[in-house]
Design brief:
The chain is built from no helices and 15 strands. The chain is an all-beta fold. It has a single domain, classed as Immunoglobulins (Immunoglobulin-like), CATH 2.60.40. A hairpin with a 2-residue loop joins strand 14 (169-170) and strand 15 (173-183). It is elongated and about 60 Å long.
Length: 193
Amino acid sequence: MLRYSSCSLNWQLRCVGLLAGAVLLVTACQFDNRMPPSFSSSFFCVIPENDPATNELTTTPPWPPCDLGIYVADVTVPDGTTVAPGETFVKTWRISNGGTCTWTPDYWFVFARGDQMAGPNAIALTDDAVAPDEAIEVSVTLTAPKKEGRYEGEWTLCNANKEAFGFGHGMGQLLNIWVRIEVAAPTASPGQP
């Protein structure tokens, strides 16, 4: 249930530059008013990018890294669930801390790209500490678009240092988890008006 993607759409590109020998893509995480007072309504996340000459990550991170999310399961709204136009629903994932650092209330679950479905820009990942190898459930309340069709929104993780870390890296990009729904008007069962 992982997908290759880079942060975009809701995160606005600020610059691409060379920092300490590594090419970095810097994006601004646009959060809502749920952020702690020590943060402004927007701050920077640093996302590693691949080197265009070699198509390899520009830095070799330690393994396991300090911050790493692991997708465990869809608790609600599995991929392909049919939702009525305009219907509000709660999407819940079970994720595990696969890194070596403890997640704190200063970590965020962040909308990354795709269809936001009236969801928040970001929510606090947890109210308590989540030690390595511990799992939690994270939920967002979403509203299906009014137009029928297939919709997908991707979500990632951001740590207290304002670094997006998601669910690992693949081909130089963050791996995200997603919600994928089909929006269709309810059909009447045989024998019903």
